[in-house]
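[job 4471] stage=fold_predict status=RUNNING
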Amino acid sequence: MNLNWLDLTVIFLYIAASIGIGIFISRKASHSMGSYFLGGNRIPWYVLGISNASGMFDISGTMWMVYLLFVYGLKSVWIPWLWPVFNQVFMMIFLSVWLRRSGVMTGAEFIRFRFGQSRGALRSHVIVVAFALLNVLGFLAYGFIGIGKFAAVFLPWQLSADPHTNEILYGLIITAVTTLYVVKGVMFSVVYTELMQFFIMTVACLSVGFIAMSKVSPELLDHVVPAGWKDLFFGWNLDLDWSQLLPAANRKIAEDGWSLFGAFWMMMLFKGTLQAMAGPQPNYDMQRVLSTRSPREAAWMSGFVNVVLLFPRYLLIGGLTILALAFFSKDLLAMGDKVDFEQILPFAMKNYMPAGLLGLLIAGLLAAFMSTFAATVNAAPAYLVNDIYKRFIRPDAPEKVYVNWSIVVSVLFVILGTLIGLYVSSLNDVVQWIVSALYGGYTASNFLKWYWWRFNGQGYFWGMMSGMLVAGVAPVLMPGVTPIYTFPAIFVLSLVVSIAVSLLTPPDDMEVLKTFYRKVRPWGFWKPVYEACLAETPEIRQNKDFGRDILNVGVGMAWQTALTAAGIFFVIQEWSAFWGCVAVIVAGSVFLKFNWLDKLRDEPE
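[job 4471] inference complete, writing structure tokens
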């Protein structure tokens, strides 16, 4: 398409500012590994919270959620439980505090802190590094696919006559530009660049939401969606029939395998709860928690992410979706079986955003891509350099050597992730495999490490290894099965292996367990370790907050869901539902203020 000169000016100014800020601030990151990966633990919690929100505001995920809202209506609010999005609630209530108390730099370093220096601990350290790097590659491929599809629609130059090749070339160019500022300063440059990106994106979200409200009335929307599209709640079946409006949407629902929405929702809740209790994956979310100045600030940061991210993001998602429903449905119908629902977002923007705002929105979504990309790249050198090179190859090298190797590793993983992205065509395929199959192999071992003292390093390694191997072959062994339905088999196998190996091998060193328990103080099955600590420190106290924490999690999930749905109800002007969400948000906020926020402690009793 041909962009207005004003739009092009906004986009180029934004790209120049992002690179400039990143390189300028990167001088702070060159002193040590702690500065490079954690910002020296000097960045305020609210800045990290906005940065974390910006990192989650990715372009590929936004394209995916626009497609979900278009096809599934308000019931799409529940589908991001696949990640699960409510892991942020578990984080804010207790897991961020526990994780930050450890004082480590990476997830692999945390494994050494939990299991010690035994052979099992060494194997566990290696397997969590392998998982982290596989996770990084998956998300880099996911981001590359999304930015290529997006840029090929909006940027004005046709780099190739073949549309798919055009997407690939744009993906390569934008990935290369983003890499310039990411590898130079990592945590400092990423966080402060994301701060600028978030405010750009918020302005764009508000603008799109209000434009959509002015162009699409509730009556017009009713004519282009099937019955039940505006209903947040559901029964056993999805009960959305697109056959008279857009038959391809029915086919897409069948392909996704989510027609039995009640069963799908229960599976998401089951999987999501276990996955959330396992703690954050070794990615940008964990790095933000470890970068905070204290455990309480880690909890504040995780809660703040929900407040600043959900409502504005869903103004954008809701606005673009209803514009596409109202004015683009006929074009989609004409495409027949060749509809690419992941292109709804760029088509809606191209046709219905005014000059200037279109440039701002493109800049904002480029910002979203850069945020997610930067945060993901940050995880790779943290594991490979800090946890492999520094520990096993050159433990006494100057800090500058580690920083330089981190830059090399970052560039290498960008290249590898891009190469993987070249062979994957669908965002939905990547999303479902990462959050269902791959995370199925991660969940059991990482769940047990928090809550059971007898779980040892050997159990962790073999549980993770078995789960990851099955996750890798699941698409071949179970072709045509929706990935989320492979989760129980992968999880149960990994759980059985984890428990069996732990019981068949000696427990970890009690001194290691006591150190972990004293610092972190989790609730769960820790009685023998507690009694050993009590014999040495009579004033030590058990963590008896399980009941309060789980109650706060339940309230927090309702509060988070209301924050999500409120933005959509606002845009589609369903005012009674909107004010109902506001009531839940206010009530949940008051409850959590007294039962969570006021009771946070940096150190355990």
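[job 4471] summary: The chain has a mean pLDDT of 82.
[job 4471] exit 0
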